[in-house]
Amino acid sequence: MTTQPSVSVPGLPGYQVAPRRQKRVQVARACDECRLRRRKCDNKVPCSNCTAKARICSNSGAPKASTLTQASEEIEWLKQRVQQLEAELEQRSNEGNNLPTPTGSSSSPPQVFSSARNFEIADSGDLKKYWGGIQLRPARSSNDTWLGPSSLHSFIQRLSAFLSLNLRQTHSANKLFPISASDNKLLDRPAGPDIDPVRRLVSTGKLSTAGVYLNPIQEEYFINFFWQTYHTSLFPILDETQFKKHYQSLWVSGGKERKPSALVDVIIAMCMQYGISALPSDTQGLLVEGKDALVAGRWHFWRGQTLLTYELESPSLSTLQCHLLCSVYLCGGSFHNMLDNSIGQAVRTAYALGLHLDPSPSMPEQDREMRRRLWWAVYLMDSKAGMKLGRPFMLRDSHVMPYLPSDSFEAARMSGSAFAPIGDNSTWLSFNLHQTELYIKARAAYTSFYDQELHLQDGQAIWDDSHALQASAEVLFPHIQILQEWTDSLPEALKLKRQNNGNPLSTDGTRLLIEQFAPLWLQRQRVLLEHSYHHLSINLYRPLISFSSKPSPGSRAEEIAMRCASHAIMLSKITQQVLADTSILDGWHEAFHCQWNAAMTLIGFLMVYPDATLTIEARNAIDLAVAVFDNFGAKFAVAANAAKIMRDLCTKVDFLAKHNQSQRDSLNGLQTISMDGSIPQDLSFVSSPSSTLRDWSSYANEPTAPDLSLFDMAVDVDFWNNLDALWPGADNLSQYQSEI
Questions:
Q1: Are 476 and 541 in contact (CB under 8 A)?
Q2: Where is the composition biased (Low complexity) (predicted)?
Q3: Given 445, 471, 503, which residue is the final one in a domain?
Q4: Among 273-277, 446-450, 705-709, whose mean pLDDT is lowest?
Q5: Does the residue 630 lie in any domain?
Q6: Which range marks the domain in which residue 531 is found?
Q7: Direct distance between the N- and C-terminal alpha carbons of the chain, in angstroms, rounded to an integer
């Protein structure tokens, strides 16, 4: 034991005084953690022990309520704080729904997912999980493909499981397949000279004539077709004047031979696909080699893709234009994975070209506007593919984006195309601007819905939890008003008038009033704007149609499901009338896919809501959809098979409706069984499964009975996914590439 040194006293030599013992520092009260662990605490806030161990220290410095008055005051303060935070959240949510501006995008940045095997995730609760979706293997593919919960394929799978349960009969795999391009080996190389077009192109720089290629007169016809269709009614990403000068410069040898151009080939391919699809099958001629119009122009497309590979390391605006137009061609042929890859290349090319930055003021205004239109065309196609396939968007919208392109008279004058103004201070460019705004709002709603944290268990989706379904409906509901605001802001010149004073862009069911003397491109713009609005609404609201946990009557989830059906009904009415009375949508492949999407949605709606107020109208709309498929089916085979599938499904719908009605009459209100086996709340018992099986078995043996291989058939209409159906001589392509 050590002794303290003594202290001498001044004036008294030799006199020593023992030092006073220093008082030990004491703590008035140890924190809860230190008391629990019997450790020495200090007066720091928080204490040193809790700080070192990263624990929550009770010595927070906040006064504790020791009286009833203090407790009441603290509760009141907490309530005010909660209201303040909720107001801030609502404000941020509203800001997130506004259009992106150069000052920044209000969307939150995507989460970064790390491999738990290589990295330790500090807080895994911050990471979101993907829910829903399917692993699909199309009939003519050897590999699985993942499609998310917003895709029609995921909805068809849930519908298929519901039918199997209620009809007591499982689906037979690969029993029936619609006739499509790949069934007939559509893109096999035709008989002719054994010329390898890739090798000839590389060695001589000349285009191959082996295959089905057009002569100069035919090329001119389809190129002129482009300006009145895709250029005005999809996205204006080309300068018409500059392109025509470029095209004329390609012809050499007295107009007998054209120099290679990927952009020209891709435009010809997509216009052949569209133009020939507008003709009856018996008048399509030799340009489709007696086969399917959806892959007409495939030789030009393949040659354009070959030329495009040599631009990948040094891309230009023309390279990006090719990628965007290629994605349109692939979408028309239902090559969805190749479409996704093509859009991915477009996104990376746009970033490489710096289009994600607003153009410099020193750049000519004409070039600035073209770069903006190109960037937002990439945004639109990325949004289309992501929402259709249910996959994450490839374009990051968490950063500042360029200004939206202008639709002013000056911008129209500099665009290179000469179209007359359409009134209301609008031009032919206004369609592109307002369509882009629509996709911005729809994408914001989509992101809010699918990025919400639902705290679902592994493998669960919102259809497995009624509370999650209702919570999802509450998240989606505010966006309905935002989409309605878009319809209100649309110029009158771009709205389709309705008969009997009906409201444009509504679901009131009134017929269209198409202006007789308006130019065809303007009529198509009006139709496609309303078509897109209903189509996007169907896709956004369809997840609220649940086959396993039916929402309670009058709930927000049921209301949105009804809205989904209303939009599908209206889209079917519009498409049928336009096809019957005009040529506006003839051959327009996107209109066919939108109608297929709406028809399958209505089938699912009728299964879940057999007695809703919209049931009769929805059933009539399906008959209109069949008429639409018959119209398209006279021009391309996939649509004809879609009509066959829809007729088979109508038979199922009618059978279940008749069966349920007879059960209700005899058993006091019995309905079909939900996928989770639950009994509806207003029912006291469930009919015997054997009776359902017996009734359907006898019905299914009739000559008109539908086949139950719904999933295989329905998916195959919208998903070929066969490489051989696009690339001529695909088996030998790898050999050609190795020789190059």
A1: yes
A2: 100-112
A3: 445
A4: 705-709
A5: yes
A6: 460-665
A7: 90
